From TrEMBL:
<dbReference type="Pfam" id="PF00440">
    <property type="entry name" value="TetR_N"/>
</dbReference>
<dbReference type="InterPro" id="IPR001647">
    <property type="entry name" value="HTH_TetR"/>
</dbReference>
<feature type="DNA-binding region" description="H-T-H motif">
    <location>
        <begin position="37"/>
        <end position="56"/>
    </location>
</feature>
<feature type="domain" description="HTH tetR-type">
    <location>
        <begin position="15"/>
        <end position="74"/>
    </location>
</feature>
<dbReference type="InterPro" id="IPR050109">
    <property type="entry name" value="HTH-type_TetR-like_transc_reg"/>
</dbReference>
<dbReference type="InterPro" id="IPR009057">
    <property type="entry name" value="Homeodomain-like_sf"/>
</dbReference>
<dbReference type="InterPro" id="IPR036271">
    <property type="entry name" value="Tet_transcr_reg_TetR-rel_C_sf"/>
</dbReference>
<keyword id="KW-0238">DNA-binding</keyword>
<keyword id="KW-0804">Transcription</keyword>
<dbReference type="Pfam" id="PF21597">
    <property type="entry name" value="TetR_C_43"/>
</dbReference>
<keyword id="KW-0805">Transcription regulation</keyword>
<dbReference type="InterPro" id="IPR023772">
    <property type="entry name" value="DNA-bd_HTH_TetR-type_CS"/>
</dbReference>
<protein>
    <submittedName>
        <fullName>Helix-turn-helix domain containing protein</fullName>
    </submittedName>
</protein>
<dbReference type="InterPro" id="IPR049445">
    <property type="entry name" value="TetR_SbtR-like_C"/>
</dbReference>
């Protein structure tokens, strides 16, 4: 007799609950930043905390799910940059702009993304590492063409994009600082011929 293991498909009401929680969390984080509690999101969603924690065991898991939902958007931008820009330096700069916007989705988001690249893995780690790999691809092309410094790493540029995203939410930041920072970042990674 052969024993087979079966994995049950998620129940439709469970899928609806999960999507409803994601929709409420997206609005909650957009309004309050990521400092809001999961219990407050559960209450707003009209579900018990146990239901929320069954779907998302931590705030990082919830954020990872919300960011995964935005993968198509940033992937489309990546593809458009790759298709439309023959200058590898400009392509890298545009990719970094896309990352800055992606990390600015919710006030306070850059901090858990930065922490996800640390020694303790989180549900956000694979998301961040994937974007570091993408950044490395854009950077390698710019380096191959002599447009980016050889000592710069994709991880460093990803962290700088997070820093700029964080700064956008700072009380002292204004329109001039948010528009100037990507240019300052480019001055740091670009070779003299690419500036």
């Amino acid at each position: 007799m052969t024993v087979t293991s079966r994995t049950r498909a998620p129940r439709s009401d469970g899928l609806r609950n999960r999507q409803h929680i994601l929709d409420i969390a997206r609005g909650h984080f957009a309004e309050h930043g990521i400092s809001g509690s999961l219990d407050a999101i559960a209450k707003e969603a009209g579900v018990g905390p146990g239901t929320l924690y069954r779907h998302f065991h931590s705030k990082e898991a919830l954020l990872a799910a919300l960011l995964t939902a935005r993968d198509d958007e940033i992937g489309a931008r990546r593809d458009a940059i790759t298709r439309s820009t023959s200058d590898a330096g400009d392509a890298l700069a545009q990719w970094l702009d896309a990352l800055i916007e992606w990390a600015s989705a919710f006030d306070g988001l850059p901090e858990p993304l930065r922490a996800a690249l640390g020694e303790i893995p989180s549900p956000l780690t694979s998301t961040c590492e994937g974007y570091v790999v993408e950044t490395d691809r854009f950077l390698a092309r710019a380096q191959d063409e002599g447009l980016a410094r050889a000592d710069v790493r994709g991880r460093d540029l990803f962290l700088m994009a997070l820093a700029i995203s964080w700064t956008r939410g700072a009380a002292m930041a204004d329109g001039a600082s948010t528009s100037l920072m990507p240019h300052i970042l480019r001055a740091g990674w670009a070779t003299a011929t690419a500036r």
